[in-house]
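Summary for the steering committee. The consortium agreed at its last meeting that each partner would contribute one worked example illustrating the joint modelling workflow. Our contribution is presented below. We chose a case with several input lines so that the handling of multiple components could be demonstrated. No manual editing was applied between input and output; the record is shown as generated.
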Amino acid sequence: MTGLIHIYTGEGKGKTTAAVGLTIRAIGNGFKVLFVQFIKENFSGEISILSKFPELIDIYKCGTGFVYEEKKINQREKIKSCIEELKIKIKAKKYDMIVFDELAVAINLGLISKDDTENFLSLINKNTEIIITGRGAPQWLIDKADLVTEMKNVKHYFEKGISARKGIEY
Amino acid sequence: MTGLIHIYTGEGKGKTTAAVGLTIRAIGNGFKVLFVQFIKENFSGEISILSKFPELIDIYKCGTGFVYEEKKINQREKIKSCIEELKIKIKAKKYDMIVFDELAVAINLGLISKDDTENFLSLINKNTEIIITGRGAPQWLIDKADLVTEMKNVKHYFEKGISARKGIEY
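What follows is the complete predicted structure of the assembly.
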């Protein structure tokens, strides 16, 4: 397999869940997946299931939490050190797929620069499929990608005042 | 939980995988899920993983195969009998979530009527979250839904001549 870059971006629901679904499909075919979560700090239901396949899925969490302007410097440092650890990880083990959940958000908010992202992506094995999610993917990242789906919010129950529910949103 | 209706439609990649991701998140929270696949006949990698959780996920396949005009009558009959079986299933067991993968396609291609769909959906427990995927969701279905995401195809490697790959598309 030649690895391609996918981006799932936009305001609509379905970005992280699509990445989880791709992970499940990949391991269903015996692929090895590295699942990286940026930004999110809290435990989501999907992680407890992905953890049940340690021989096929490695999970790496780089949670900075909600991005406040006054905390951005610390959050940038956090992501920088995560990237350094990830470089070691991807050098040590051959993954068929790597998911970078919410990476587009981290880039969009300036927590990781274009240069650092490009440098990091260039180190990944050419046969590894790369899945990037998050709203606000910048144009230069879209230009680099082989597949881009924009999850367009046509209608969302949040607009009706229904808040995030356990088992559905996390 | 009050059950809501989600639709993941559009031409872009990520509809079925989002439904699989929602299923994984749901069972990660102990929810019981019925995962129904319409249209698709072949085995996908994700099904082998979903099958590993028989205490939480029931899988029901209603594969008609690719929809040719000359086979539509048989395919309509097939879906009609699937719906009858499903009515018995949902009456016998309380699901927290039901995924109808590719149902929008079946509706869009006239394999199941608006009346039959509405009648069937009205029989589902009001606390069950309903997830419908497939391109071409009709407006009346969108009107009924609480959440609609259109997976917009911004860029797809199929356009570059790369065909469906095991582990990524199935």
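The mean pLDDT of chain B is 95. The first strand of chain B starts at residue 5 and ends at 9.
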